[in-house]
Write a structure and sequence with these properties.
With 243 residues, this protein is α+β, with helices and mostly antiparallel strands. It has a single domain, classed as Class II aldolase/adducin N-terminal domain (L-fuculose-1-phosphate Aldolase, 3-Layer(aba) Sandwich), CATH 3.40.225.10. It has seven helices and nine strands. The strands form two sheets. A seven-stranded mixed β-sheet has the order 3-2-1-4-7-6-5, sandwiched between helices. A two-stranded antiparallel sheet has the order 8-9. Strand 1 and strand 2 form a beta hairpin. Helix 1 packs parallel to helix 5, helix 2 packs across helix 4 and helix 5 packs across helix 7. The relative contact order is 0.17.
C-alpha cells in the first residue's frame, strides 16, 4: 500500500477503536487533514463509526463541499472539521463525540481538568462552547461554517473544547494522538465524576501535565496503546481484520 492508503486504513481503524472503547456510538465522527492537500480533509460518509470502511471515506474542501459525493449521504456537522482545520494549521486530526461522561461538565460550573496521569493529554484548560451565545436557539448541531468557525475560536490553541449539552471536540497532530486523547478524556471524566462524590479532588499540576503529556506523545507510547486498542477493535494492524 502507498502511504496515503495506509493513512486511510488508519482512519478506518480509528473509527473502529473509538466505537469499541465507547467514545462514539451510532453518532460521532473522526477526520484527518488530507496529507497531500492541506486545504482538504477526509471524513466518512454519514455512517456509524463501527461500520466505516475505506469505501465510505470522502474528501471535502474546508467549506465542507465533497469532491466526489457519488450519491452518498454526509454528516451534517462537517463544519466542525472545516472550521477547525481552517483556523489551526497544526491540527491534522479531529474527533467529535457525545460522551455521556463528558456532557455533565458541559452544563455545570464544575471544570473538567486532568486528575489522573493518563488524562494529562487533554490539556490543563478545556473551554466550553455554547452555541446559544451567538446563534440563539438552534438544534445544537454545528451545521454552518459560521458555527464551525465560532467553535474554532472558542477552542483557540487548546487540544479539547467542550460543547454545552452536546459533547466535545478533540484535536491532534496525528490520528493516533487524537484517538488517545479522546479515550483518556472520557476515562478522566468518569474518574472525576466518581472522585467528586468522595470529596475535594487533587488535580494534576501544570508541571505534571506537561511532563506526562510529553511521555504520552512519544511514538513508543502511542504505538503500544494503538496496537492494544486496534486489537480490541478487531484490527490487529491497519488493514488486517481479525473480527
Amino acid at each position: 500500500m502507498t502511504n496515503f492508503d495506509e493513512q486511510l486504513e488508519e482512519l478506518v481503524t480509528a473509527n473502529r477503536i473509538l466505537a469499541r472503547e465507547g467514545v462514539v456510538d451510532a453518532f460521532g465522527h473522526v477526520s484527518i487533514r488530507h496529507p497531500e492537500h492541506p486545504d482538504r480533509y477526509i471524513l466518512s460518509q454519514s455512517r456509524a463509526p463501527d461500520l466505516v470502511n475505506v469505501s465510505d471515506l470522502m474528501e471535502y474542501t474546508l467549506e465542507g463541499d465533497p469532491l466526489d459525493q457519488q450519491g452518498r449521504t454526509m454528516y451534517s456537522e462537517r463544519p466542525i472539521h472545516g472550521g477547525i482545520y481552517e483556523a489551526r494549521d497544526d491540527v491534522l486530526a479531529i474527533v467529535h463525540n457525545h460522551s455521556a461522561t463528558v456532557v455533565p461538565f458541559t452544563v455545570t460550573d464544575t471544570p473538567l481538568r486532568p486528575m489522573f496521569h493518563l488524562g494529562a493529554l487533554i490539556g490543563p484548560e478545556l473551554p466550553v462552547w455554547d452555541i446559544r451565545d451567538n446563534f440563539q436557539d438552534t438544534s445544537m448541531l454545528v451545521a454552518t461554517m459560521d458555527q464551525g468557525r465560532d467553535l474554532a475560536r472558542c477552542l483557540g490553541d487548546c487540544r479539547v473544547a467542550l460543547m454545552r449539552g452536546h459533547g466535545c471536540v478533540i484535536t491532534g497532530k496525528s490520528i493516533r494522538e487524537v484517538v488517545m486523547a479522546s479515550i483518556y478524556l472520557q476515562v478522566n471524566a468518569g474518574l472525576l465524576l466518581e472522585s467528586l462524590r468522595l470529596g475535594d479532588v487533587k488535580y494534576m499540576t501544570p508541571g505534571e501535565i506537561e511532563l506526562m503529556s510529553e511521555g504520552q506523545m512519544r511514538p513508543t507510547a502511542q504505538e503500544r496503546a494503538w496496537e492494544y486498542w486496534a486489537n480490541r477493535a478487531g484490527r490487529r494492524k491497519d488493514g488486517d481484520k481479525n473480527a
